Amino acid sequence: MKTLEAYIVLAAQSHGHMCPGQVLGIRMAMAGLRAIGIEEPEKARKRLLTVVEIDRCATDAVSLVTGCRLGKRSLKFLDYGKVAATFVDLDTGRAMRVAARDDARAKAKSMFPAIADAARAQLEAYKVMESDDLFDLQSVRVNLKPEDLPGGPHTRVACAQCGEGVNDGRELHVGDRVLCRSCAGERYYEVAADN
Ligand SMILES: [Zn+2]
Ligand SMILES: [Zn+2]
């Protein structure tokens, strides 16, 4: 594992700025990986899977440190709105959920009163605070199905309504029809009139 300072430099480059959320994300990933016994994430790419519970600054940092990515299926995003992530060793099944403590923000604010810029003060505090003050860790089990794991698609079917292909069992059975989630009623968009 690289040092916190080294990750901060890399995270600022890839995320576009440095911010308290990224320091939190870096430290969250470092704490989670250590807790499941992975000291060298760059050598554990194939066995590491991370579930993130928020799509904010911390998430980019978690991805950077772990090397887990959405496009490799090793990063799962569950939109729970919580600054938390679970780090899974697919070889051993060991998994640790790391959640940012709500009182960490208040504690951080009180640590560097001489720094006028609040975000800067928070960032500096997140660098040096004890891990126990920043996070709660829970040892967990994550139920991952084969079709959720990295690797080639397990299945692919065509939606009976729109004809688009659906990978890995994400189709729904409605009556006697096999439909994609959009056609089954979960569509997140409306088709515009100008098609
Ligand atoms: Zn940010
Ligand atoms: Zn469809």
What descriptive keywords fit this protein?
195 residues; alpha+beta; two-stranded antiparallel sheet; 9 strands; binds zinc ion
Structure in a nutshell:
The chain has helices at 4-15, 20-35, 57-66, 104-111, 118-128, 131-134, 182-186, and strands spanning 48-52, 75-77, 84-89, 95-100, 135-140, 156-158, 165-167, 172-174, 177-179. By secondary structure, it is of the alpha+beta class. β1 (48-52), α3 and β2 (75-77) form a beta-alpha-beta unit.
Global mean pLDDT: 96
Major β-sheet annotation:
5 strands, mixed
Task: Bin the strand percentage.
Answer: 15-25%
- Strand line-up across the major sheet: 2-1-3-4-5
What does it look like?
There is one protein chain. With about 200 residues, the protein is of the alpha+beta class. The protein has 7 helices and 9 strands. It has helices at about 5-15, 20-35, 55-65, 105-110, 120-130, 130-135, 180-185, and strands at about 50, 75, 85-90, 95-100, 135-140, 155-160, 165, 170-175, 175-180. The strands form 3 sheets. The chain has a 5-stranded mixed sheet. It has a two-stranded antiparallel sheet with strand order 6-7. A hairpin with a 5-residue loop joins β3 (about 85-90) and β4. α2 (about 20-35) runs parallel beside α5 (about 120-130). The protein is globular. The model has no long low-confidence stretch (mean pLDDT about 95). The structure holds zinc ion (2 copies). The site of one zinc ion has 6 residues, from α2.
